[in-house]
């Protein structure tokens, strides 16, 4: 029931995740952040099995930090994504597989901004835009229509707003708030939470709204 | 829902006159949903030796990484490039090691012998049973369609350009009859002195 969205722009990656933390039919928390900072310029959004997401995300984040401490410089986005994929794939055939779907967005000086999509089995692909969850069925077509290469931050936010509106319109589960972050050369920036655009109620012709005094 | 059809793939290799060709679709999908149209399924293991992997995408990536590791060690120890026939045995061993918990991949090998430049194509099943043929090999969710196409368009001793035409038509038309294959295609023509890589203009549906 969760939705993660990632959009690669000119020199940044825009990432968003719904902020509902739910168990069964209950929405336990409405302002939950599903994005984990792996390093200064690496962000990972994770959705899937409850405990697995946090455990796996923190495990990866700590290992990325360890690399930084040992070697004195950060892992590139590609390397961090490959490391994550290797871990997911190795655990897949163990007795404790992680049921986590990921989006990894990062910026490094050699490759610029990159977005990697990874499913719980450990298949990884670099994408201009990626979506996880049921929301993907609604949002990917919107992206195909309106995405273009080298978008600015504003254009990407407009596209993201379109996606959120579409999910709100057609997805049966109420995801009415998305946490949004941007990763770029300067680091990770937390943006304002995005909500679906509220449309003013339509006036049906032939009726008048009455103020009951 | 079969594990081998979870991601979908169409891969084939053909022999020509002093050349081989290997081609694959480039779709990465999760059941009915297409996630990417630029997924790599053919990997280079030597200047004239390529392996294509069909099956579960995570295992395609894992097997290609593990295989590259083994080939690298082989070349360091032996101080020479691995021969296509030997690579077949290496892959077979890698896969059979997991006999009772296999990698869900069906590889296809195409290459020219490093010394004699003799063309070689082969394929394996998911537990490493090797098969060497004199004409073509296919692998993937639309293997029946690919067999039909290959049988029709292939003839012995095609030159590189004719081989390119043949393998392209075979792959495209077979993949068009399969829901989870297609969405782009790439072809490598391997000759004695060069390798030409072309992306095909495929139906994106």
Features:
heterodimer, A: 213 residues, alpha+beta, five-stranded antiparallel sheet, 4 helices, 32% helix, 31% strand, B: alpha+beta, 12 strands, 30% helix, globular
Short description:
Chain A is built from 4 helices and 12 strands, in the order E-E-E-E-E-E-H-H-E-E-E-E-H-H-E-E. By secondary structure, chain A is α+β, with helices and mostly antiparallel strands.
Model description:
The complex is a heterodimer of chains A (213) and B (205). In chain A, 32% of the residues lie in helices and 31% in strands. Chain A is globular. Chain A is α+β, with helices and mostly antiparallel strands and 213 residues long. In chain A, the strands form three sheets. Chain A has a five-stranded antiparallel beta sheet with strand order 10-1-2-11-12, with helices on one face. In chain A, strands 5-6-7-8-9 form a five-stranded antiparallel beta sheet, covered by helices on one side. With 205 residues, chain B is α+β, with helices and mostly antiparallel strands. Chain B is 30% helix and 33% strand. Chain B has a five-stranded antiparallel beta sheet, with helices on one face. In chain B, α1 crosses α2 (84-96) and α3 runs antiparallel to α4 (160-175). Classes of the chains: A alpha+beta (213), B alpha+beta (205). The A-B interface holds A 85-86, 88-89, 92-93, 117, 119, 121-125, 127, 130, 136-137, 140 and B 7, 28, 30, 33, 35-36, 38-39, 56-58, 60-62, 65, 101.
